[in-house]
Design goal:
alpha/beta, FAD/NAD(P)-binding domain, 2 domains, six-stranded mixed beta sheet, 9 helices, 28% helix, globular
Length: 357
């Protein structure tokens, strides 16, 4: 039996499983999925788990079951491309013929002193649980600093406001306006929501140091009771330390087939893979689609397409609590209740599609 090994049960590898199972791959192939948890986590919803507005169970999807899908749970410590094997913390050695690395990312602290030690995170389900315990255990009137006003920071700030109206929330944005890369109408809508709901957005900020109860923004010292870091990501350590050519962010360089440029048997998907497009679940899924096509060509001993179709992201969706939201699709912006319903509907469809495997 030939072995296809998938590292990480994130959005990219879930899309690969969705396309291959139950029997859309050769009979002499065995698939092994390695993950630290026995379920797929909906990372796009971790902000709500951390804010206390959703439950742990609602941000999980069961992995599919199939006689030719082997599940292995544990921490990966090494990817040995010479021996074509993956080593786990408990000593297990998992050999592969083809490998898909989809291990995701972790917070990028940009070298800011104290940031890693003194802030909370929503990068994993375990860290989001810890963040929930901290934020929802704060006494009334506490100050929460959220560093980073990208989509994660915006959604966390709005959801936390809905969960804890008694907290003082400060959202630190490096830009001069929220979501600067998108239409001003969208920025204004989000900013107005924060003004109306008493979330303090601090524009053109530059966090230079983090202490347990203090944030240093430029030369200003701001007293806080908790800090959540949402200011950028980088690949997980095991990927950053891989013996492979990487970009400036530590992500392995891949060709148009999402293979390492010097190894056709190793694919990289999602936040781990070098890309000019912004990291997102949507991007990981599109990459997964292409990896499946490449695998099928190779399994059938067919030549790969000369040129793979370009990935074009459809847009993005964001929520502002449970009742309002914003959507930017095909140069069209939708805000308000309809936008929130669109996001909820997309999440429902995703869970239904993956739960039915």
């Amino acid at each position: 039996m030939r072995k296809l090994v998938l590292l990480g049960g994130g959005y990219g590898n879930m899309r690969i499983l969705l396309r291959l199972l139950p029997n859309n791959f050769p009979e002499d192939i065995m698939i092994t999925l390695i993950d630290r948890t026995p379920f797929h986590s909906l990372k796009t919803e971790f902000y709500a788990l951390a804010a206390g507005t959703t439950t742990d169970k609602k941000v999980r999807v069961s992995f599919p079951e199939n006689p030719r899908l082997e599940m292995v749970y544990g921490e990966i410590t090494k990817i040995d491309r010479k021996e074509k094997s993956v080593i786990l913390e408990d000593g297990q050695v998992i050999p592969y013929d083809d490998l898909v690395i989809g291990l995701g990312c972790e917070d990028d602290y940009h070298g800011v002193p104290g940031a890693e030690e003194n802030s909370y995170s929503i990068q994993t389900i375990a860290k989001s649980r810890t963040t929930f315990e901290k934020l929802c255990g704060l006494p009334p009137g506490s100050v929460v600093g959220i560093v980073g006003a990208g989509l994660s920071g915006i959604e966390l700030a709005s959801e936390l406001r809905e969960s804890r109206s008694d907290l003082k929330i400060k959202l630190f944005d490096r830009s001069d306006r929220i979501l600067r890369a998108f239409p001003e109408k969208l920025s204004k809508y989000v900013k107005d929501w924060f003004v109306k709901n008493n979330v303090d957005v601090i524009a053109e900020s530059n966090i230079t140091k983090v202490e347990p109860t203090r944030l240093y923004n430029h030369e200003e010292v701001i007293e806080v009771d908790a800090v959540v870091w949402t200011a950028g990501v980088r690949p997980v350590k095991i990927v950053r330390e891989m013996d492979a050519e990487k970009d400036k962010k530590g992500r392995p360089l891949v060709n148009q087939y999402f293979q390492l440029i010097d190894d056709e048997n190793v694919f990289v998907v999602g936040d781990c893979a070098s890309s000019d497009l912004p990291a997102s679940a949507q991007l990981a899924e599109e990459q997964g689609e292409r990896i499946v096509k490449v695998l099928k060509h190779r399994w059938n001993n067919e030549a790969l397409p000369e040129k793979m179709p370009e990935i074009k992201l459809k847009g993005f969706m964001g929520s502002l609590g449970k009742k309002q939201g914003f959507v930017h699709l095909a140069d069209t912006t939708v805000t308000g209740r309809i936008a929130r319903l669109m996001k909820s509907g997309l999440l429902w469809m995703y869970k239904r599609q993956n739960d039915s495997q």
